[in-house]
């Protein structure tokens, strides 16, 4: 199955790739790599905001990270000219969790995006990763995730 067929079979779909909100581009292609700017926890019904550890629990943070992952895949699709079959693997994710100072389960939250990549891409979705806490994120987003993907030449 394709990435989008796999997502659909699991009740998920890709949103439209979001336009940048500041002075940056949403993605850059260099060689066989696509470097995608941080995607925040935006859903079709709006932005998931707040701090994990006070406003949100781990499961809510994980759901927010999944949304970031869907937004990453939407940007990857745009970078591939609308053809996700060009995607070869997820190389790296960088995850940022808007959280309280005493929150230490960042990896559990960012698993929302990591699990999505493995679901969507199989073994090619396994990646290296960073998962860190932050005192705040843009627009009070709960989670932000950036990524590097390999594509066909």
UniProtKB/TrEMBL annotation:
Q: Which Pfam families match?
A: YjgF_endoribonc
| Gene3D superfamilies, per database record | RutC-like (3.30.1330.40)
Give the Endoribonuclease L-PSP/chorismate mutase-like domain ranges: 5-143
Entry superkingdom: Bacteria
Q: What is this protein called?
A: RidA family protein
């Amino acid at each position: 199955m394709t990435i989008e067929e796999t997502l659909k079979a699991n009740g998920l779909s890709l949103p439209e790739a979001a336009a940048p909100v500041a002075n940056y581009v949403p993605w850059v292609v260099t060689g066989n790599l696509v470097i995608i700017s941080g995607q925040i926890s935006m859903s079709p019904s709006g932005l998931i905001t707040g701090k994990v550890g006070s406003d949100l629990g781990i499961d809510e943070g994980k759901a927010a990270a999944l949304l970031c992952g869907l937004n990453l895949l939407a940007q990857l699709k745009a970078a591939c000219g609308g053809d996700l079959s060009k995607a070869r693997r997820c190389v790296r994710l960088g995850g940022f969790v808007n959280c309280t100072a005493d929150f230490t389960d960042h990896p559990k939250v960012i698993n929302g995006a990591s699990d999505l990549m493995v679901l969507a891409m199989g073994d090619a979705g396994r990646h290296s990763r960073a998962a860190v806490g932050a005192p705040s994120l843009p627009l009070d987003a709960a989670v932000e995730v950036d990524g590097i993907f390999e594509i066909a030449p």
